[in-house]
Specification:
InterPro entries: Amidohydro-rel, GlcNAc_6-P_deAcase, Metal-dep_hydrolase_composite, Metal_Hydrolase. With 372 residues, the chain is an alpha/beta fold. Helix content is 26%, strand content 28%. It contains ten helices and 20 strands.
């Protein structure tokens, strides 16, 4: 249920920091006023809600379970400040992907109470290189427009990860990017030259930069080199386990609108133990999620911790916030999300001076927090 209320504190507005008040009405930001009551100093930060474009699960539930799994996942992540997300699939046989997309299509039409808004689907595979699966199941295949059109008829596919070096994929990239689908390179053994060609055909991003792609070498720059040299946008997992802080800082200097994702699994928000990731069984232990052979298999990261990690490695709070809210919103063309501005959706997180969550609002509805 949406609320009409006023929030007070240090606000990260679309034009910068302001000490003042944000007025919420009917699920939107109705007004922003400068100045604090009684001249009090702000004790909390008011930031745009987090937008996560790569979510496989959470709260013990995996997206590939289908049914109402996404509602459960959306509620879990909302409790950690994520106000909108893309439900992300795993590589799987076509019949399984179709089943899950049909369920996601139904669930994307309305927001689950107390949950994040599901903006659509991130189809991560099956159009990836079988030689660079990472934690993806071994069901990779070559993309075909007829199959993709069938998938898109079932659910709003906003983003697709594929390997550009697979024959026929450049044409797929060109066709779908012209239709507004964000095409990302990932799980790829492609060369620098192949990645640059994919960008020229309309590819616009890179999936979990550095992970599951050809790395940077000074004589063979690889897909990582293409991203660092040419990308405007790329996603990165800032759990400080998938990517070293030094590599994160390298990417920050090179990619203007580098944004962050969790790549979270069913293990997010859960104790150590065994969980599902698509058809795989994975183990959460010591802050990470791995296959039996030790391969990293998604993460346990939540977006509030991603913010703290970015600040920990030296980013100013406003810059860290942009990479969790503004940039992913802009990447998807979501001009009414990811920013605190009059008329925008009332997707807001309130944090204390130590960047601990105090309140979360999704389209004006206050969400109960983890410790509530």
């Amino acid at each position: 249920m949406t609320q009409n209320l006023t929030l007070q504190g240090r606000i990260l507005t679309a034009s910068g920091w302001m000490d003042g008040r944000v007025h919420l009405a009917d699920g939107r930001i109705a007004a922003i006023d400068a100045g604090l009551a009684s001249g009090r100093q702000p004790e909390r930060y008011i930031l745009p809600g987090f937008i996560d474009l790569h979510v496989h699960g959470g709260g013990g539930v995996d997206i590939m379970e289908g049914g109402n799994a996404i509602s459960h996942v959306a509620r879990l992540h909302a409790r950690f400040g994520t106000t909108s997300l893309l439900a992300t699939t795993m590589t799987a046989p076509p019949a399984e992907i179709s089943r899950v997309l049909a369920d996601l299509g139904r669930n994307c039409k309305e927001r689950a109470p107390a949950g994040a808004r599901v903006l659509g689907v991130h189809l991560e595979g099956p159009y990836i290189n079988p030689g660079k699966l990472g934690a993806q199941p071994d069901d990779a295949c070559q993309a075909a427009m007829a199959q993709i059109d069938a998938y898109r008829a079932l659910a709003p596919v906003a983003l697709i990860t594929l390997a550009p070096e697979i024959p026929g994929h450049l044409d797929i990239i060109r066709t779908l990017s012209a239709q507004g689908v964000r095409m990302q390179m990932g799980h790829t053994l492609g060369s620098y030259e192949q990645a640059v060609e994919a960008l020229q055909h309309g590819a616009s991003g890179f999936t979990h930069l550095f992970n599951a792609m050809t790395g940077l070498h000074h004589r063979e720059p690889g897909v990582v080199g293409a991203a660092l040299a040419h990308a405007e946008y790329a996603e990165l997992i800032p759990d400080l386990l998938h990517v070293h802080p030094g590599a994160i800082r390298t990417a920050l200097r090179a990619i203007p609108r580098l944004y962050c994702v969790t790549d979270s699994t069913a293990a997010a928000g859960m104790p150590d133990g065994e969980y599902k990731l698509g058809s795989h069984s994975v183990t959460k232990c010591m802050g990470g999620v791995r296959l039996a052979d030790g391969t990293l298999a998604g993460s346990t990261l939540t977006m509030d911790q991603a913010l703290r990690n970015l600040v920990q490695i030296g980013l100013p709070l406003a810059d860290a916030s942009h990479r969790l809210s503004l940039y992913p919103a802009d990447y998807l063309g979501q001009s009414e999300r990811g920013r605190i501005a009059t008329g925008a959706w009332a997707d807001i997180v309130v944090m204390d001076a130590d960047l601990n969550l105090q309140h979360v609002y999704v389209e004006g509805e206050e969400i109960g927090l983890v410790d509530a």
